UniProtKB/TrEMBL annotation:
Residues 290-440 form the Glycosyl transferase family domain. InterPro entries: Glyco_trans_1, GS/SS, Starch_synth_cat_dom. Pathway: Glycan biosynthesis; glycogen biosynthesis. Belongs to the glycosyltransferase 1 family. Bacterial/plant glycogen synthase subfamily. ADP-alpha-D-glucose binds at residue 16. GO terms for molecular function: alpha-1,4-glucan glucosyltransferase (ADP-glucose donor) activity. It is an enzyme of class 2 (transferase). Its EC number is 2.4.1.21. The lineage of its organism: Bacteria, Pseudomonadati, Pseudomonadota, Alphaproteobacteria, Hyphomicrobiales. Synthesizes alpha-1,4-glucan chains using ADP-glucose. It comes from Labrys monachus. This is Glycogen synthase.
Length: 478
């Protein structure tokens, strides 16, 4: 067994704001079948600590920024966890990163600096009988672990950093250096400095033995100025250590044959019951009950996700005779614009503003197509749920959306390989064109059914995807 310490700020099902949590929550079980034992270090948010009565203190740390701090260990729902119990840092109302109004906590660098520092100590023998072979950190919140390890001067495990979204880098003014308990010399180009600031993600990318991101296409995109968000130079320089591993999905949680969140279960052999999910959706969103194509969109409502592009293409979708149901939250103006669109197109556009895991299942299980018009997308999960649920993805050809679908062009249709519709460049006219193509395909029932079934039969499970991480670990230890 290879022993891996994973470090992350979210883990499904305990704390989730996005795809990061899904990956961190799914990998341990999937890696177990590849002889890799993962223990995950997470912040001791109330949702984490309240999930078990079995937490045992395994270490007491010198106080982080004026508060009592311990590391606790427990197994929660099959996940072997270390939690950094520091109530003054993590026991707060609101989300993991900000208050109830969505404002980032001003001490986020110290909060995640503390997480990273504690993780580094776990890697150098803080806890009796625990020493990982590999430390695997996720995103900027955990990235600084590798800097703490470097400057500790102690023998350290091999390291991997996974970037789930380069847009979030954790950059802070150099004046906070003292509060992070890192030596002054760390503030250097060959360290944590990044354009005059302290860069958490930069530090991780600089010190990691291997860098992965969540699709091969995104791994190559981020070496360019267009998608590199300022880190393209560093990433291009580390190209030999950079690779992409596509995310899997939890194929038990997302199994249309048994999913209790659906109105009716179905499988490749019996697509018929999807109609009952469609009806349930029509009722829930208060839209017309008819045979016209039904698009769905489940997303954070942000610029990255191309939600403004969707708004621009919406009149075309409705004029083409189709309908849209949207579930999402985020940018207040985008939320308001979609509420207005629902009023403007009664019966044709239905909108639920909010976060609703169960409803999202019903949407993939009942709608005909799922839209993902992202400007950039490291991997993307909703297109994978769409594939698994026979809800054909219509997506921008970027990042993981490019790697996980075969566009229904003439060649792919002839070869029976098509699984979705892709468009590029990412703008409203091209999205409109993709919507038109998808509707035409939908009207050709044999072709459409075949496309649905092909997507449903793909192996999208973590069990197979985790093999790539296991190989990476073994290479590092060889
Ligand atoms: P990102 O992590 O950038 O938000 P991903 O596609 O990788 O994008 O992951 C988003 C995850 O969050 C998916 O599991 C998606 O179904 C879910 N999701 C996003 N918005 C909502 C919502 N409003 N209600 C329910 N689930 C949502």
């Amino acid at each position: 067994m290879i022993k891996v310490l994973a470090v992350a700020s979210e883990i499904y099902p305990l704390v989730k704001t996005g795809g990061l949590a899904d990956v961190v929550g799914a990998l341990p079980a999937a890696l177990h079948t590849h002889d890799v034992a993962v223990t995950t270090m997470v912040p001791g948010y109330p949702a984490v600590l309240n999930a078990s009565e079995e937490w045992a203190i395994v270490a007491t740390l010198p106080s982080f920024f004026g508060g009592r701090t311990t590391i606790k260990r427990a197994t929660v729902g099959g996940l072997d966890l270390f939690a950094l119990d520091a109530p003054h840092l993590f026991d707060r109302p609101g989300g993991p990163y900000g208050d109830l109004r969505g404002q980032d906590w001003p001490d986020n660098p110290q909060r995640y600096g503390a997480l990273s520092s504690a993780a580094a100590e776990l890697c150098t023998g803080l806890v009796h009988d625990y020493l990982p072979d590999i430390v695997h950190v996720h995103d900027w919140q955990a990235a600084m672990t590798l800097a703490y390890l470097h400057y500790s001067g102690l023998p350290r495990p091999k390291s991997v950093i996974t970037v789930h979204n380069l847009a979030f880098q954790g950059q802070y003014p150099p004046t906070i250096l003292g509060s992070l308990a890192l030596p002054q010399r760390a503030f250097a180009l060959e360290g944590i400095e990044y354009y005059g600031m302290i860069g958490f993600l930069k530090a991780g990318l600089y010190f990691a033995d291997r860098i992965t991101t969540v699709s091969p296409r995104y791994a190559s995109e981020i070496k360019t100025a267009e998608a590199g968000m300022g880190l393209e130079g560093l990433l291009a320089g580390r190209a030999a250590s950079l690779s992409g591993i596509v995310n899997g999905i939890d194929s038990q949680e997302w199994n249309p044959a048994v999913d209790p969140k659906l109105a009716a279960n179905f499988s490749t052999g019996t697509l018929g019951p999807r109609a009952r999910n469609r009806e349930a959706l029509e009722k829930r969103f208060g839209i017309d009950h008819d045979a016209s194509p039904l698009f769905c969109l489940v997303s954070r409502l942000t610029w990255q996700k191309g939600i403004d592009i969707m708004l621009e293409a919406l009149p075309h979708l409705v004029e083409s005779g189709a309908r849209l149901v949207l579930l999402g939250s985020g940018d207040r103006e985008m939320e308001a614009a979609f509420r207005q669109a629902a009023d403007l197109y009664p019966g044709r556009v239905g909108v639920v503003i909010g976060y609703d895991e169960a409803l999202s299942h019903l949407m993939f299980g009942g709608a005909d197509m799922t839209l993902v018009p992202s400007r950039f997308e490291p991997c993307g999960l909703t297109q994978l749920y769409g594939l698994r649920y026979g809800c054909v993805p219509v997506v921008a050809r970027v990042g993981g959306l490019s790697d996980t679908l075969v566009d229904a062009n003439d060649a792919a249709l002839t070869l029976d390989a098509a699984t979705g519709v892709q468009f590029h460049p990412v703008n409203a006219p091209m999205l409109q064109d993709a919507i038109t193509r998808a509707i035409a395909l939908y009207r050709d029932k044999p072709v459409w059914r075949a496309m649905q079934k092909r997507g449903m039969q793909l192996d999208l499970s973590w069990t197979s995807r985790a093999g790539a991480y296991a190989r990476l670990y073994r290479e590092l230890l060889a």
